[in-house]
């Protein structure tokens, strides 16, 4: 465990992974050093039909890949880990658990073939693990291994890790649509027009670097969100605009390692009376400098609830085990219909529509239509 790595460097390394999965090795190396661990692993498994599975390793584990020993481990021993990762998936967000508290006693773990192999080849005995996000569309979890001489992971290591778990989780969540773009089009920031949500890349100063087609469409409406003469985002009145730019500044500070803000949500009313725009402002760092501007700022995601044509509601309904009737109600709900409208459209009683809406919110774990929209976009990014 070392104090040489600053919180700034840790945050920089974590958010550098958003636009480049290759940076996870470095991120896990610095995090492992910070908490006194020897090695780390990140597992992301997709359940939603979206082509992004990821298994990233810190440098010490990567040495096994280079030597060829990882192939033996994966083919012959990795099945022993399944119960560990499954246990992690059942933990509440924020929980960090020692391996001896998961599925077996320390003695039993030490005797397990996969543990014996890692102890011999990497010098790791005890581990800690934790989930990052709770989402039906994918599983993600991370584990850190500690030197074989340690019989128990120190409390201090867990305490040092805890403040950064939320940032690790946010980096994975933000990276999801970007890496789908990378797999499909071999580019990320230069192909944002494939996303059906509005995306605006902004510098710390508020200056806009890039907008995709959907963002341009939304801004052209000048309906609660527009561009100023200085080519900056303007949200309604002066107070709302100031709040938006404060959020952008805070997120830029995080990407530079000078703050620890994770994201900010806004709901922008529209003078036209249309349903409000839903905004999320999050940290974004172009670690590969794809745009050649050294972007270290913020990503503003704009969701227009009146433009849901590319939403994969069918897959979303399957992931959350909605009944066929609930899936239909979910689609109508996302289109902006209220309970009375839904009952009339489907020729059911109002009480039936209300019960179905309540069931949808319970199964998806959200409490309102805006949160449902955000969850759908997060789970199944609308990419054409």
Tell me what you see in this structure.
With 384 residues, the protein is α+β, with helices and mostly antiparallel strands. It folds into three domains: 7-185, Beta-Lactamase; 195-303, PAS domain (Beta-Lactamase); 313-379, Winged helix-like DNA-binding domain superfamily/Winged helix DNA-binding domain (Arc Repressor Mutant, subunit A), CATH 1.10.10.10. It is built from 15 helices and twelve strands. The chain has helices at residues 7-15, 24-35, 59-67, 69-77, 82-90, 106-111, 113-122, 155-185, 213-221, 238-255, 313-319, 324-334, 339-346, 350-364, 369-379, and strands spanning 39-46, 54-57, 97-98, 124-131, 138-147, 198-202, 208-211, 226-227, 233-234, 264-268, 277-285, 296-303. The strands form three sheets. The chain has a five-stranded antiparallel sheet with strand order 2-1-5-4-3, with helices on both faces. Strands 7-6-12-11-10 form a five-stranded antiparallel sheet. Strands 8-9 form a two-stranded antiparallel ribbon. Helix 11 (313-319) crosses helix 12 and helix 13 (339-346) crosses helix 14. It is globular, with a radius of gyration of 23 Å.
